[in-house]
Every structure is written in structure tokens, then in C-alpha cells.
Design goal:
about 190 residues, mainly alpha, globular
Length: about 190
């Protein structure tokens, strides 16, 4: 109605909103990633989300990851000991907790392995969280580098494992009656 930009192009309007959120966040010294997240929540119209997603994957997301890589200084901030200790301990905790939860939920052994490895991948969210924590001064440069590398390594390992599973023709999740957890019927509590 009153918004000429939104009527002409939903993508253009959402980009204007994104830049407005990021500008305000910059003035207030708030994380720009958090501002972009809030702008994404504000972009709730379904008809403009798909084209916006295409623009994001083509422009904004590669720029973001390039900036993350630019902040890394592997020569000064890489610690093999920290990487190994954190990767092994965090990975073991995540794998064990998902394995136990999947076992309690009634999943089969291959299902438990696949779920544990897939959820161990930190990926993009791990990189974003590490960046926000680093920008806020919560973590130092060495730990930031470690978290970024762990996000990359765990994602690659998960992809490698799932590719092996698919090449062997194994199912990612069994679809037999005994492997599908029973869903409890909802009850009214008086």
C-alpha cells in the first residue's frame, strides 16, 4: 500500500530492512550478525523469502564467510593442542549424549551412529556463534580459531561419514516397526 519498495520487489524491501537493522546495530555497538538475524525474523512473508534466500546464498553468506576467514590468523592463533583437546572432548560428549538419547528413544545401532555423527557437525551455526562470541570479547583469538576449525572439521567428517553410508546403500534411518520410536498418546493431567 504505502510501501512502494515492498510492492515492487519484496527482496529489495527486505534488503533495505536488513541494512536498516545493521546500521542501527552498528551505531549501538551490537553484533551485526545478531542484527541480520533480527532482520531475518522480521522478513516473515513467505512470498519474498525464497528469492531473498537465493540472494543471500549468492551474495551475503559468501561475504560473511570470507570476512570470518579474513579474521583468522592461523600463523599466530592456531594451537594444535587446544584443537585436539577440544575436538576430542566436545566430540566425545556430543556423540555420547546423542547416542544415549537415541538409544533411549528406541533407535537401532546404525541409526544411533548416523544421528550422533550428523548432529556433531557444528557447521555454519558454530561459525556464527564463534564469531559473535569473538566480536563481543567473550573468547580470545586462539579459541576463536579453534572453534572455526572445529566447525569445519566436524561438518566435513559428518559429510564424509554420511557419504559412506549412502554409497554402501545403508539407510540413514531404519524404517522398521521396531526402530521407529513409539509416540506416547497425549493425556490430560487433572
Amino acid at each position: 500500500r504505502w510501501n512502494v519498495i515492498a510492492r515492487r520487489s519484496g527482496v529489495a524491501w527486505h534488503i533495505v530492512v536488513l541494512f536498516a537493522y545493521v546500521s542501527i546495530a552498528s551505531l549501538l555497538n551490537v553484533s551485526l550478525v545478531f542484527a541480520a538475524f533480527l532482520a531475518g525474523i522480521a522478513a516473515k512473508r513467505k512470498e519474498s523469502v525464497e528469492p531473498l534466500s537465493s540472494v543471500s546464498f549468492a551474495v551475503f553468506i559468501p561475504i560473511y564467510f570470507a570476512l570470518v576467514g579474513y579474521k583468522l590468523d592461523l600463523a599466530k592463533t592456531f594451537s594444535l593442542t587446544m584443537l585436539a583437546v577440544f575436538l576430542l572432548s566436545a566430540g566425545a560428549l556430543k556423540l555420547a549424549s546423542v547416542w544415549i538419547a537415541a538409544k533411549c528413544a528406541g533407535f537401532g545401532s546404525l541409526d544411533r551412529i548416523n544421528l550422533a555423527i550428523a548432529t556433531n557437525a557444528r557447521g555454519g551455526p558454530g561459525i556464527v556463534l564463534a564469531s559473535v562470541a569473538f566480536d563481543a570479547g567473550i573468547i580470545n583469538a586462539t579459541f576463536y580459531t579453534t572453534l572455526i576449525l572445529i566447525a569445519i572439521i566436524t561438518s566435513q567428517l559428518a559429510g564424509f561419514w554420511l557419504e559412506i553410508v549412502l554409497r554402501k546403500g545403508w539407510p540413514l534411518l531404519e524404517e522398521t516397526e521396531e526402530s521407529i520410536p513409539a509416540v506416547a498418546e497425549p493425556r490430560m493431567v487433572a
